């Protein structure tokens, strides 16, 4: 098995799983629009607290859930996108360069820009999520009870991207590139 195949396969599996969340997001939007049109709110009420839905599912719960799903869909796969080499860059200039120049630009970009960013951003993102968790942060308008979950996606997504940056930097130092 070529080096990096396992990491790429793991990334592909994660991207496929997140594609299911896109469908869940669309269903959530359709349900919210339909319930809003027919003036159905709350959708479901619970006698006891049920997970992060609290005492019921309301239109605001659906809106909060949409943001949770959107955060997962956008932040979590960033590392896999980098490993697959499908991230955004100025390709009309980059494509004109040879493989060694490309590796050099990618390596310098990772070491000079990305890694220092993660050294600063990861602790701040973790503190942001933990502060919300410790305070029991929830929606103030009948939405989801545990809004710290959406804030936890930030350090998780950044952490996965940091792992991908370190992985790719190692590949660049060894002189090969993901296929």
Automatic annotation (TrEMBL):
Keywords: Cell inner membrane, Cell membrane, Membrane, Transmembrane, Transmembrane helix, Transport
Annotated ranges, domain Tripartite ATP-independent periplasmic transporters DctQ component: 64-174
Any single Pfam family the record assigns to this protein: DctQ
Membrane disposition: Multi-pass membrane protein
Keyword Nucleotide-binding attached: no
Organism domain of life: Bacteria
Major site of localization recorded for this protein: membrane
Cellular compartment(s): Cell inner membrane
Segments traversing the membrane: 65-83, 104-126, 146-167
Subunit (UniProt): The complex comprises the extracytoplasmic solute receptor protein and the two transmembrane proteins.
Family, as annotated: Belongs to the TRAP transporter small permease family.
Role: Part of the tripartite ATP-independent periplasmic (TRAP) transport system.
Name this polypeptide is given: TRAP transporter small permease protein
Organism: Roseovarius pelagicus
Lineage of the organism: Bacteria, Pseudomonadati, Pseudomonadota, Alphaproteobacteria, Rhodobacterales
